[in-house]
Amino acid sequence: MFLLRDDISEIVALLRNGKVICYPTDTVWGVGCDIFDEQAITRIGQIKGRPSNRGYILLVSDLDMLKRYVPKLHPRIETLLSFHQRPLTVVYEHSVGIPASVKAPDGSVAIRVATDQFCQELIEHLNSPLLSTSANESGEPYPQHFGAISSEIHRHLELEFLRE
């Protein structure tokens, strides 16, 4: 199924119903799901052929959402994230409310404040972080554009969307 980026309410409903999506992030094309849906998380690992002992990147909409999950945010990190112009993923040793299934084996979690307007809106409407991983099979090149996503990934996805 294909949707346009402005179908945010429908996309959020699909995420809340355990669907896996393919979407443009602020870095590469990604595959994602609701971080609280264990079956969807398992499915992403299967789609990618990814080992289950690796953590995922989580996208949050803004610093306020980040602070809900990383309440002891170091002031220097907050300053860096406030002024950094490019996408920046930070690994946090301590977090709250994040399922173990999306964390690294040591309990750390990688979180990026999304800079892409579409991602920010989607995450705001979801009202929780979005699991994000590149839309490629494990070990293959990252897809920089929609056409670079392999047919193997496409055939496993319930939802893909196109840029406006």
Question: Can you offer a commentary on this structure?
Answer:
- The protein has one domain (2-162): DHBP synthase (Alpha-Beta Complex), CATH 3.90.870.10.
- Helices cover 30% and strands 21% of the residues.
- It has six helices and eight strands; from the N terminus they run E-H-E-E-H-E-H-H-E-E-H-E-H-E.
- The protein has helices at residues 8-16, 38-48, 63-69, 75-83, 117-126, 151-154, and strands spanning 2-4, 21-24, 29-34, 57-60, 89-92, 109-113, 130-134, 159-162.
- It has an eight-stranded mixed β-sheet, sandwiched between helices.
How are the secondary structure elements laid out?
Layout: E1 2-4, H1 8-16, E2 21-24, E3 29-34, H2 38-48, E4 57-60, H3 63-69, H4 75-83, E5 89-92, E6 109-113, H5 117-126, E7 130-134, H6 151-154, E8 159-162
Parallel strand pairs: 1-8, 2-8, 4-6
Antiparallel strand pairs: 2-3, 3-7, 4-7, 5-6
Helix pairs in contact: 1-5
